[in-house]
Write a structure and sequence with these properties.
Layout lengths: L1 H7 L6 E2 L4 E2 L10 H20 L3 H11 L4 H29 L1 H17 L7 H11 L6 H11 L5 H13 L1 H19 L4 H8 L1 H17 L13 H5 L3 E3 L5 E3 L38 H9 L1 H31 L5 H13 L1 H19 L2 H25 L4 H25 L8 H26 L3 H18 L14
Antiparallel strand pairs: 1-2, 3-4
Length: 494
């Protein structure tokens, strides 16, 4: 079994003939189109996250001092960076369904790279706040990242694929805590640049990285397994011997045998039937949504039941990422900007393992139970545990490094695993409008980040108090939506 796992990392994956999606993830095979798309999915989101969160590592000391910023100015800049991402994510979902996730991905990367390179023009706090708003465009790349992966990987592994891409991408938030101080220190100590010039020049590096990745994505990757986004329906026309259950499970019409999914299926009318099925009961092909469909999906309880927990988990991650270095510096004054930043980086870097673990657990419980409810219950468990750790950190406000770092690591596991498990369930909900669902859920993540950033802002340096308040909100919100069906009744036929 271990041999097969390692083998699947290199070889071309087995393809589901019904939807042209891969049944394994060729992580180490960039020559295969599925491996190439996966590579650019996580790399594109990682470099976006790197630039999106490139300011906090230098903001707590260097930039704050140079621009004469108050603590409120710093907090406002963190909030504004999340506001732009919220707006972009809500728009990016429908754009992905209409134009394809690859082009949306490339467009957002290039649009966010330009203001990143303009950091050298900032001369006051208001200028930095305005700049971070436009850099916040990069946070919207999460939506095309997830929609792109969903379009290339089968439901049996889509949770793992989405969480790996999202987790490795989120790690950019940790890498930037190492990268930006290192670039800054190099410019100051090795190139003898004054501080006020060094930090401005440092932001040219993320610009170059982002632009290079965006161009690689544009010229080296495909929109869908069948090629162009306009050709995404071709597989459906070719697959005349298969159809799907309402939950998105593939059924062979001739034999009635499953290739994945439920043990007691309800089979839809085959493509040759004269009965016209509703759009959302068709195969997994994404359609260009009408305004009414966008509204129905957005207001669906099943969509909100994913969006609210994600608002707590990813929202917490965003807000905590922005203040963690400052939190460490306050509780442990002997730490300088570089050292506190390196320890804060661990919170983001743990995404490399913990977020994929959430997606993998989601796929495993689905495999062994054949129930989408199992993924939903996993999200609830992880969300409640996350809230408990936030309460523990906030109420104890650790005064020793061992206690602080241990509790933060525990929080990172449940928080980041919750993010991964959430997007293991997203592809099951309204699969015909995956971009819209992904955009709304992702947007709620940023909305949560804004709410929690405001809590940190108004509690000032009382980081422990802010943390337990967020813990209460996380516990309450996850329990409040735990009863909602993971898949809408309209998608389940009798």
């Amino acid at each position: 079994m271990a041999t097969n796992f390692v083998k699947n990392l290199f070889i071309s994956p087995e393809i589901n003939p019904s939807n042209r999606k891969a049944k394994s993830i060729p992580i180490l095979n960039p020559f295969n189109q599925y491996g190439r798309v996966f590579f650019f999915s996580w790399l594109g989101f990682m470099v976006a996250f790197l630039s999106w969160y490139a300011f906090p590592p230098l903001l707590s000391v260097t930039i704050k001092k140079d621009l004469k910023m108050t603590q409120d100015d710093v907090a406002n800049s963190n909030i504004v960076a999340l506001l732009a991402t919220l707006l972009i994510r809500l728009v990016a979902g429908p754009l992905c369904d209409r134009y394809g996730p690859r082009l949306v991905f490339v467009g957002l990367l290039l649009c966010g790279a330009i203001p990143t390179a303009m950091a050298g023009l900032v001369t006051d706090p208001k200028g930095l706040i305005a700049l971070r708003f436009f850099v916040g465009i990069l946070g919207g790349t999460f939506v095309p990242c997830q929609v792109w992966c969903t379009g290339f990987f089968d439901k049996s592994i889509v949770g793992t694929a989405n969480s790996l891409a999202g987790g490795w991408g989120n790690a950019g938030g940790g890498i930037t805590y190492f990268l930006m101080p290192a670039i800054y220190d190099s410019l100051v100590h090795s190139h003898s640049l004054p501080s006020h010039k060094a930090w401005r020049i440092a932001y040219v590096v993320p610009f170059i990285i982002i632009t290079t990745v965006a161009l690689g994505m544009l010229f080296l990757c495909e929109d869908t397994p069948t090629g162009k986004w306009s050709e995404r329906h071709l597989w459906a026309k070719e697959s005349n011997n298969t159809t799907m259950t309402a939950g998105g499970n593939i059924v062979d019409i001739n034999s009635g045998a499953f290739t994945s999914g439920m043990t007691t299926p309800t089979i839809l009318q085959p493509p040759t039937s004269k009965k016209k099925a509703p759009r959302h009961h068709k195969q997994e092909t994404v359609v260009s949504p009408t305004r009414r469909e966008v509204l129905n999906v957005a207001l669906s309880l099943s969509t909100l039941a994913l969006a609210i927990p994600y608002g707590c988990s990813f929202g917490s991650e965003l807000a905590i990422n922005s203040i963690l270095g400052s939190y460490y510096t306050k509780n442990f004054p002997h730490m300088d900007q570089t050292k506190s930043g390196q320890w804060a980086a661990m919170f983001g870097l743990l995404n490399v393992v913990f977020r994929p673990a959430g997606g993998l657990f989601g796929d495993l419980v689905y495999k062994y139970t054949d129930k989408v409810w199992s993924k939903k219950l996993l999200i609830t468990f992880l969300g409640v545990a996350m809230g408990a750790f936030q309460l523990a950190i906030g109420l104890s406000n650790p005064s020793t490094e061992a206690a602080m770092f241990g509790l933060i690591a525990g929080l990172a596991f449940f928080l980041e695993a919750s993010n991964g498990a959430n997007f293991a369930l997203v592809p099951h909900v309204h699969p015909f409008a995956n971009g819209i669902v992904s955009g709304i859920v992702g947007g709620f993540g940023n909305l949560g980040g804004i709410v929690f950033a405001i809590i940190f802002r108004y509690n000032g340096p009382s980081y422990g108090r802010s943390m337990w308040i967020i813990g209460v909100i996380s516990l309450s919100a996850n329990l409040a939506v735990c009863w909602i069906r993971p898949v809408p009744r309209s998608q389940i036929l009798s």
